[in-house]
């Protein structure tokens, strides 16, 4: 790995949507390789906008964003596809092909690495199958490889989503509200998986989270957004309820925390 592999840097970055809504405002932000960053902010604060700007799904209106030390291309094309190969995405709704096996879903993470004709004929090279199986081992469900994705629990489906991202062998993982569809117990398991994988593999990880207690518990660094603007950037160990109130522009409420009794922690 080069020194810049896994790095993200925004400089004076702005995104104004065609309808005039400001999604990102004068963002200066540097994320170092291997960091685990939790992004918080109320609905519409610009969390998804930020994540999607990293892999070029959202284009900047002005300013600059660099990933792995290189500017994210402003045009779709080969260069952007190459960059996206190195960025794994994890979604709230898992985005699995439910009628296919777990293994087939995880192999999708290899799509950018294997010639199209082989994938169409389902002739995946042994090395890629091996990578997919290792990814399933990493999330603790190698025994589910040949089960249909639709037959898994929500937590297991999200683990397949994580394994698919890992199969890309990415430098960066972007997780957009990865636990929003899960029950509290499974939520903690999936967050623990993400943290463990970050520590084991050193993959830079950005996680958008709604619940403040999860941000505190699992974040290393917390970034707070409000109206597209960076209003907080600090350690999860020292973030206070007052900081969260400033990020949200209001008092912390019961529905901001997953586990009861944590509202005034
Ligand atoms: N494609 C779009 N066109 C126009 N406005 C958009 C578009 N995508 C997002 N926005 C607006 O940009 C702002 C930031 O949205 P974004 O989805 O990034 O927020 P968020 O913090 O992820 O919110 P949530 O927690 O609800 O997902 C919002 O006001 C949203 O309505």
UniProtKB/TrEMBL annotation:
Indicate how the chain sits in the lipid bilayer: Peripheral membrane protein
Secretion signal span: none
| Keywords assigned by UniProt, alphabetized | ATP-binding, Cell membrane, Membrane, Nucleotide-binding, Translocase, Transport
Name where it's found: Cell inner membrane
**Primary localization:** membrane
User: NCBIfam families recorded for this chain?
Assistant: ABC_phnC
Q: What is this protein called?
A: Phosphonates import ATP-binding protein PhnC
Organism annotation: Wenzhouxiangella marina
């Amino acid at each position: 790995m080069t020194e810049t592999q896994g790095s993200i840097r925004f400089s004076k970055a702005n995104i104004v949507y065609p309808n005039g809504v400001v999604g990102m405002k004068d963002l200066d932000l540097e994320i170092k390789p291997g960091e685990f960053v939790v992004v918080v902010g109320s609905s519409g604060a610009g969390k998804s906008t930020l994540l999607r700007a990293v892999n070029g799904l959202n284009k900047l209106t002005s300013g600059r964003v660099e990933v792995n030390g290189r500017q994210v291309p402003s045009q779709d094309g080969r260069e952007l596809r190459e960059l996206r190969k190195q960025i794994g995405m994890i979604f709230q709704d898992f985005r699995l092909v439910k009628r296919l096996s777990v293994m087939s879903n995880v192999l999708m993470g290899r799509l950018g690495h294997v010639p199209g004709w082989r994938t169409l004929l389902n002739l995946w090279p042994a090395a890629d199958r091996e990578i997919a199986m290792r990814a399933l081992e990493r999330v603790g469900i190698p025994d589910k490889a040949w089960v249909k994705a639709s037959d898994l629990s929500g937590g297991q489906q999200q683990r397949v989503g994580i394994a698919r991202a890992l199969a890309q062998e990415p430098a960066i993982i972007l997780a957009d509200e990865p636990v929003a569809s899960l029950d509290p117990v499974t939520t903690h398991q999936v967050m623990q998986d993400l943290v463990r994988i970050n520590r084991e593999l050193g993959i830079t990880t950005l996680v958008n989270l709604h619940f403040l207690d999860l941000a505190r518990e699992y974040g290393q660094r917390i970034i707070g957004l409000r109206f597209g603007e960076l209003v907080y950037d600090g350690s999860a160990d020292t973030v206070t309820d007052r900081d969260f109130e400033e990020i949200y522009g209001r008092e912390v409420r019961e529905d901001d925390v997953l586990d009861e009794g944590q509202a005034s922690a």
